[in-house]
Amino acid sequence: MTRSATQTLTHPLGDLEVREETTPVHAADRPDAAWWRQAVIYQIYPRSWADADGDGIGDLPGITSRLPHLRALGVDAIWLSPFYTSPQADAGYDVADYRDVDPIFGTLADADAMIARAHELGLKVIVDMVPNHSSDEHVWFQAALSAGPGSAERERYMFREGRGEHGELPPNNWESVFGGAAWTRVTEADGLPGQWYLHLFDPKQPDFNWEHPEVRAEFESILRFWLDRGVDGFRVDVAHGLIKQQGLPDTEEERTVMLGHAEHDDDATPAAAQPEDAPRIDHTKRSPMWDQDGVHEVYRAWRRILESYGTPDRILCAEAWVEPQERAVKYVRSDEMHQAFNFDFLTSSWIAEDLKAVITSSLQAADSVGAPSTWVLSNHDVVRHASRLGFAPGTPRMNGISATDPQPDRALGLRRARAATALMLSLPGGAYIYQGEELGLPDSTDMPAEFRQDPTFARTNGAETGRDGCRVPMPWSADGPSLGFGPGANTWLPQPDVYAHYAVDQQEGVAGSTLELYRALLANRRRLSLGTGSLTWVDGYAADVVALTNGSDQRERVLVVANLGDAPVALPEDAEVVVASGPLEDGLVPSDTTVWAIWS
Ligand code: GLC
Ligand code: MG
């Protein structure tokens, strides 16, 4: 078929005329575009990937030993959640020493060995940087506590006098993302209650004062420390935090929402599906704690440091839960970060029109600043997409699933998850994969309360289940202690029995397994350089189908058809199927299935 011509598809339920739109929504990148403009980055959650020493918690030597799994999977890079010295009050996102490895994960030498092994296997290494807050066990915070009010040491954090006659009320009305007040009052040297300090997350995560030059200098030095050890970049935690509005005014928001954590109805959720009492975010009101303009100067300085390390590029990826997209893409202007997670895609409902809208707006917003878009469906903060998609489209997104909640339909969730991933990996730009999704892992949805460790659970008295369900240790083999996670029988979070069925050794080499699907998707994405392709919508299919082409002057055009409807849909006769997220039925694409086909 010639480009843009109409093609008639014969279909048992009635013929269909399909046609590629004349203008792409996104033009192809240069074929020699920098690696990060198209990279697939695999997120390792170090506590839960592989445990070498058998203490039930994953560690760096465990990671190093399992890296060949990722080489075989076909990803470009790994991103590791924090493995730094930490009391683990927020699973390592509470850092006490940014320049050392926590003993539960190993040593600095183990980090060096992990980086070297990854590089040997052709994998780049991205580490997590947590600049919004430290642990309360960081030497600076300990010094601030003992130095007392008015001291230079307290200036590096956000200490304030309380309100009320005796300072007994917090300085403002801000709430912690994890529940409860965002302020904790300290006991001063005289044994009396004194100042309050700000923590947007757990009380064990005091916020830094980013107006302080020493804080800025310290983080620039930490970046150099890890760059000098050979890392290829940083994922920047809570990148939209750091700077707070001058004067710390009360917020008008009912509660502090960081979309990753709290229950939230995204705009993409169809209005009809939104329950009346769902929390809403009013984007016209700027929050005093998030996305302040001053934060961009910090990242410009960081970019200059990374660029001083030459090529291949060292990169910054923002975890910035910022809306609308026009503000979010400010983080990826050409002199700031390279990438930002696309949480609009992650939070989109399994509804074709919503997905199309989000793909179009993501590409256009990123293009407006010359950045690649990124795509992500799961991470360590959200319910895994194999579970999330096991609910009816439009169900409000949950912060964890417990045994007393409605349970997802596991088979349906997996089927949709495979289709969603096949759609995601066909899109131009970068993509993120969260450990275990290549196995189709569901969340643990019946974890007994006594095992729960996410601070959200305790701080909301169990009202929010929290993120433990997506953080359960990986099953590598159906037999053996802890399903091959490590030599010990116990794991820091219990593995549900059903995980044995998803183990790597149950899927390796098995036709149709989720692991083999991911391998095929990644191999074909690389072979066809889909990451640098153009994107053009294909019209003519029913409204519950996402159909697009990914093109380039250098190679054949790829047609992608994701069927979110009930009725099977036809493919053009001259389309040659490359990979499908599930079996076709009489050549038709069945419900909740995505197909890639060469369409020349
Ligand atoms: C980010 C991390 C999350 C952590 C929070 C506070 O959202 O992804 O796991 O709890 O920041 O550091
Ligand atoms: Mg261990």
Brief digest:
The protein contains 14 helices and 20 strands. The chain has 600 residues and is α/β, with parallel strands linked by helices.
Can you describe this structure?
Belongs to the glycosyl hydrolase 13 family. Pfam families: Alpha-amylase, DUF3459. Residues 262-281 have low confidence and may be disordered. This protein has 600 residues and is α/β, with parallel strands linked by helices. The protein has helices at residues 60-66, 68-73, 108-120, 139-147, 213-228, 295-307, 325-328, 343-347, 352-368, 385-388, 410-424, 455-459, 504-507, 514-527, and strands spanning 6-9, 16-20, 40-44, 77-80, 84-85, 97-101, 124-129, 159-160, 183-187, 193-198, 233-236, 315-318, 339-340, 374-376, 430-434, 534-539, 545-551, 558-563, 576-580, 593-598. An eight-stranded parallel beta sheet has the order 13-12-11-7-4-3-15-14. Strands 1-2-16-17-18-20-19 form a seven-stranded antiparallel beta sheet. Helices cover 22% and strands 15% of the residues. Helix 7 (325-328) links the parallel strand 12 and strand 13. It has three domains: 6-28 and 534-599, Immunoglobulin-like, CATH 2.60.40; 35-134 and 213-243 and 283-514, Alpha-Beta Barrel (TIM Barrel); 139-198, Oligo-1,6-glucosidase, Domain 2 (Oligo-1,6-glucosidase, domain 2), CATH 3.90.400. The longest helix is centred in the middle third of the chain and has 17 residues, at 352-368. The structure holds alpha-D-glucopyranose (GLC) and magnesium ion (MG). Residues 51, 53, 55, 57, 59 line the site of magnesium ion. The site of magnesium ion has 5 residues, from loops.
